[in-house]
Each structure stands twice: as C-alpha cells, then as structure tokens.
Amino acid sequence: MSLARLTAYLAAFYALFHAALYVLGVRYDLVPLGMFAHYADPELLRTRLLESCFYLHVQPPLYNLFVGVVLKLFPGWEAVAFQAVFLLSGFALYVLLIVLQTRLGVSRAVALVTSTLLVCSPSFILFEHLLVYTLHCALLLVMAALLLHEFLTTKRHWAGWAFFTALFLLGGIRSMYHLVCYVAIAVGVVVWAGPPRRRLVWMALVPGLLLCSFYVKSYVLFGQFTTMSFMGKGLWIKTVGNLSWPQREQLANEGKISEVSLVERFWAIDYYPEAIREIEGFEGIPVLRQKDKSTGEINYNHLSQLAVSKLYMHDALYVLRHYPKTYLCSTAWAALTFLSPMPQQVAGLKWWQALYDRLVYGKINVRLARFIPQLGASKHVPYVFLMAGYPLLLCYGLSLGLRGGKAGAFTHAQRGVLLFMGLTILYVAALSILLELAETNRYRFETEGFYVVFLGIFLERVVVGRLRRRAGTD
Question: Which of 197, 199, 317, 436 lies at a C-alpha separation of 20 to 30 Å from 443?
C-alpha cells in the first residue's frame, strides 16, 4: 500500500475518532489564553502583537507570536481556527510517527498499532484540545528526528536546513530547549555526520544565531541572558515552598531568605514589597507595566517579576544548600508525576482514561505515600509500564544507538537518530524532574513520540522477530 493511500485511510479513521470524541463531549479549550502565565494579554496580542512579543520575558516569543497571528486573522472565530491548527498538527504527528518508525526498520503494521495507541491516549486527546504548546513541541521533535534521518542518509541540504530550523522553533517556543541544548545537538550532528562539515556548520549557525538573538535581546533589555524569567519560581516551589510556614517565617526574620518568600509564587503583584512592585521603566510598554491582563488574570510579564524571580532563585538556592531533604522529597514527587499520565477532565472520557490507565499504563490503585511517608500528601499511584517500561525503553533505544544491534542491524544514519531521540528524552526528563514539580508529565508528553518509536522497534525486533523465528522452526 502506498503512503498516499495509507494517509487517506488514516485521515478517515482520524475523522471518525474525533467525531466520536465530539459526541462524548470533548471540546477545544481556549481558557489558557486568558489564564495561563505563558501568554501576554490577548488584547495586547490583538492590538500590539510585535511589541508585546519583543518585550516578553516570561516565555520565548514564538508561540505568543503564533497565537497573536491567529487572533488577528480570525477575530470571533479564534476557537475554530485554533482547533483546526491543532487537529492538523495531531494528524501530522500521527503520520510522521509511522513514517519515522518505518525509516528505522519497523513494519507498517507495528508502526500503525503503536502510533494509534498514542493517538487514542487520553493525554493526546487532552493536548490536542488545549491551547498550550505541548502538542506542537512533540510534533517538532518527531519532525526533527525524521529530518535528521533524511539528512544523514542522503546529505540533502534542504533536510539539514529544515532540521536546524525545527530546533530553532523549539527553542523559540519552549525555554527548555535552551540555546545550550541547541549548540550541543549541533556539535553532535556535525561530528556524527562526518565530512564535508563546512556547509553543515552554516546550516546550524544561521538558525542558531536567530535563536541566540532572543537571548541577546533579553540581556540588553533586562540584564538576563535567558528567554524565560520564571526559573526562580520553579525551583522555589521545590525548596522554600516545601518548607512549613513557621520555618519560612523564621528564615525570613533571620535575613537568610527574603521577604518575597513569604508571598506564594502565583499571588498578585500587590502582595510583594513596595520596592519591588513600584519599579520604574518601560512606561509606554503595557505588556511590562500592566499588573493585570484584560481578562482579570495576573500579568506575570510585569517588569517587577524579573526581580521577584531573582529573589526566589536566591532563596531557593539557600534552602537547597541547607535543607536538601526538602528538595529531594519534592524531586521524588516530580519524578512520580513525570511517570504518571495527565488527568482527563472531560466527564464523558473518564471511563476511557480508567480503561487506558489500567490496560496500557498498568495502573495499580495503591497510594505510594502509604509505603513512602516522605511523600506526605501525595496521591501518586504506580503505573507499572510508565515507571518500569519507559526507563527500559530509553535504555534499549540508547543501547541500539551506541552499538547498532546484532550484525550491524542499524545504519550509521539510523543510529544517529536513535541517539538523538534517546538523549533528548534523557535531557527533558532530567531537566523536568530536577527543576519542576507539578507538571512534569506534561513535559514528558513532548517526548512521547520517541517512546512510541522505541516501543515499535522493540516489538518489531524482539516480539515479532521471535514469533517469526518460532513459526519458521515449526
């Protein structure tokens, strides 16, 4: 069957599946636009888009730019436009996952099963219907892996340019894909690809300089070489935020941590000390000056948040040094969250989540806090396949990338892609668990496609291969 015909069949299945989801009550959720800290005031995105993206410090600018363009082009029809983009993105991810697996030696039948398993997952359904960048990051990572394979196999220049452009887009959307990460991948690809390397260096350099310009702009404007000013708040909740209130008050009274740590990280700006909240500068730039968005939510891109986040980081590092147990406990919490699925909020899909969690993720309804008291109020339960299977799949994929399997089963190009996927999973997992607390499973989903590819390779080489050998001996 040709790829075009297979794509047509997949499109028909995809349409029927989403029609069923609609009947079950699944709708596109536009609430994050007015609520999430990730976005500038939607009114500013409509009326002062370029200015607001330029002065954004709470997030890299590209996703706000995308959101603002949609708001400008489709006034009154925003939800329909976003849903169309997300449905197309989800379908593209579906198809590209199958193509990527076949490029790595997986049969179409196995690739179809594993990719469909992801598309039908409650987490995929959630992120396909929620205005947040998670689905697009997952898509860009799979595109990057496919483009890398194309370039390493054929040396076609367009594939190299497109690969590094995908990495640039990731860095411009999501601060986790840092400039340092981009440089590390670029160096690795240049070394792995072999000569001639000069043109490849240029392919990496141009998008890399564009990404670097976001950091330079932030340094010139705000004195911080970063595209996200929220990091201090992230580490704070794992350290200071994990102390009891009396401990926090005592440390603040002794001058060991600042008064800022007596304010919860998502409270309104007016709760902070006057010296911080009354900061001057950029008076004509509303994205930096308004305390609240037009939706009534707090503007976390307010100029004062730069100083707030710095103080949170300073206090977090103090507690990390002197109260390491708080950090270790919250990191264990983050790891358990990383290896848990996202909860489904649609009432009509609760039964599907319960079934999927039990059959696919191996959920066991036993609270881990019963056996690990240090988890405190944690409601985490074990998901056997996520907790044991995902780390094993990662080790399996990395081992194939490093060794190539028996009798050189994987080409040099395929091994390069396997290493790119495995090291990306490792990077995202480590950064999420070490620096974040509550939403690490959302970050894991961005690499979910790579786990699916490793699962497909395992099923093809181990399970199907064994069945074929057994059938041949009968």
Answer: 317
